[in-house]
Design a protein that fits this description.
By secondary structure, the protein is of the alpha/beta class. 29% of the residues lie in helices and 25% in strands. It has two domains: 134 residues, D-Maltodextrin-Binding Protein, domain 2; 98 residues, D-Maltodextrin-Binding Protein, domain 2, CATH 3.40.190. α1 crosses α7.
Length: 257
C-alpha cells in the first residue's frame, strides 16, 4: 500500500457478524460488539496515543472467507476477531501478539449416534470450508465417529445448517464461539458438546505485511493493554470460564445444553 494505516484519515477495521463472544452484531444493523471489538478499540486508541490524533474507526463486515481478500485489497486496514495465527497465513499476512488461545469442539444434535455402535454410516459434520476447525477435525487421531465434512463459507452459515438441515448431524467450530452460539433461543434441547478438544491455537489481529510501522504500533499498544488494569475488566465482561492465554486441558465430560 502507498501509505501506512497510521497516516490515513479513517481506520477501517474488519469484524465478523456471527462469532460471539469475539465479534458479533446482535441487530440487523452492523454495529459489532464483543471481546475482540473492545480489545481492538483499546489497542487502536493506544497505538496513536502521544503521537497523533486517533482517526475515526469504520467497522467493515468480513467473514472467514472474505477477510484476507479485503485486507489485501486495502478495503480494511486490520481484521480483529477470531483469526488463527498459522504458518500459511504468516506467509501472506502479518499478525499481532496472540489475543486468545483456544481449541475446537463438536456439537451433536439430539439422537445423532457418535459412538462405535453407530454403524458404518458417516455422520455429516458442518464447518467453515478451509478453516482450522476443518483441519483439526481431519487430523484428529480419533474424533469418536466416522464423519463426512460439509464445508460452508462462514460460521453463520455453518450454524444455520446445523440447526436447519436435517441431513447435518454435527458442527465443528471454536469451542468458545460454538458454546456461545448454542446458548441462543434457536438451539433445540439436548444438543451435546463432545468432550474431545481438537487442536490448539492462538488468535491474533491480522494486518498487511507491507505496513510494518502499523504492525509495530499495534503490537506495542497490545502489549500495554494486556498488562493494564483495563484488561481484567475486559475479560470479566466477555468470559466466565475461559482464560485467553491458558491452554485447553483436554479433559471434561459431555456438556448438554
Amino acid at each position: 500500500m502507498s501509505s501506512s494505516a497510521l497516516t490515513r484519515g479513517t481506520l477501517r477495521v474488519g469484524f465478523q457478524r456471527n462469532t460471539p463472544p469475539f465479534s458479533y452484531a446482535p441487530d440487523p444493523a452492523f454495529e459489532p460488539i464483543g471481546y475482540s471489538v473492545d480489545l481492538a478499540r483499546l489497542v487502536l486508541a493506544k497505538a496513536f496515543d502521544g503521537t497523533r490524533q486517533p482517526p475515526p474507526l469504520e467497522a467493515v463486515e468480513v467473514t472467514s472467507t472474505t477477510r484476507e481478500g479485503l485486507l489485501a485489497e486495502g478495503r480494511i486496514d486490520i481484521e480483529c476477531g477470531s483469526t488463527t495465527i498459522t504458518e500459511a497465513r504468516l506467509q501472506r499476512c502479518a499478525f499481532s501478539l496472540p489475543i486468545f488461545r483456544t481449541a475446537h469442539r463438536i456439537a451433536v444434535k439430539p439422537g445423532a449416534k457418535t459412538g462405535a455402535t453407530a454403524g458404518t454410516g458417516a455422520r455429516r459434520v458442518v464447518g467453515i470450508q478451509g478453516s482450522t476447525s476443518q483441519a483439526a477435525l481431519a487430523s484428529a487421531p480419533d474424533p469418536g465417529f466416522a464423519f463426512t465434512f460439509v464445508g460452508v463459507p462462514s460460521i453463520g452459515a455453518a450454524f444455520d445448517a446445523f440447526l436447519d438441515d436435517p441431513l447435518v448431524d454435527a458442527m465443528v467450530a471454536d469451542e468458545v464461539i460454538l458454546r456461545t452460539l448454542l446458548l441462543g433461543d434457536r438451539t433445540p434441547d439436548g444438543v451435546t458438546l463432545l468432550d474431545v478438544r481438537l487442536g490448539e491455537e492462538s488468535y491474533g489481529f491480522m494486518m498487511r505485511k507491507d505496513d510494518p510501522e502499523f504492525v509495530r504500533a499495534v503490537d506495542a499498544a497490545l502489549a500495554d493493554v494486556l498488562a493494564s488494569d483495563a484488561y481484567p475488566k475486559l475479560l470479566d465482561t466477555w468470559f466466565v470460564d475461559e482464560s485467553p492465554m491458558s491452554s485447553p486441558n483436554g479433559t471434561g465430560t459431555h456438556e448438554t445444553l
